[in-house]
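Lab notes, practical 5.
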Amino acid sequence: MRCQTEAVLLMMSGLPGSGKSHLAQALAIELRAVIVSVDPIEDAMIQSGLPMSFETGVAAYQVGAVVAAAQLHNGFTVIADAANYLEVGRDIWRAVAAESRVALKAIEVICSDTVLHKTRLEGRRRSLRAYPEPSWHDILRRASEVEAWTTPRLVLDSAGETSAMLEEARRYLNA
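Output from the prediction step:
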């Protein structure tokens, strides 16, 4: 992949366990980009005594946005690793890109293989201490709440080969 000369904000999107963080990590290595992951931020907020709520979740996105803006200002490409299945979250990243005067690219990761998605979710072992891992029932509920996109994005299916996903992402980011 050719090195990017200008910073970009890459907004990852997808339900928990879909494979978005795996793809984000692979892209970060190739792009030498910074990953801003919302879940650890929210975990720290909950550990600090804030109640787990919709508002705490939005606040975690806002904190991530401040970190992302600083890194974009420093010239780094930033990968926003969050579910982003609601417009309120997507709008936060759109605002960061606009205010930072950088291109915004969005990649939505889905997993068309339900058994694989459920297996990935149940096998996840992250170092979050207060933020609970969602159950499969939670994922099904969230899937029913996904809001339609109002801006273009690349949709990748993680049920296929990672190398194929990476190649599609490369083409999209270099276009």
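Observations recorded by the TA: The chain has one domain: 8-174. The two ends are 12 Å apart (CA to CA).
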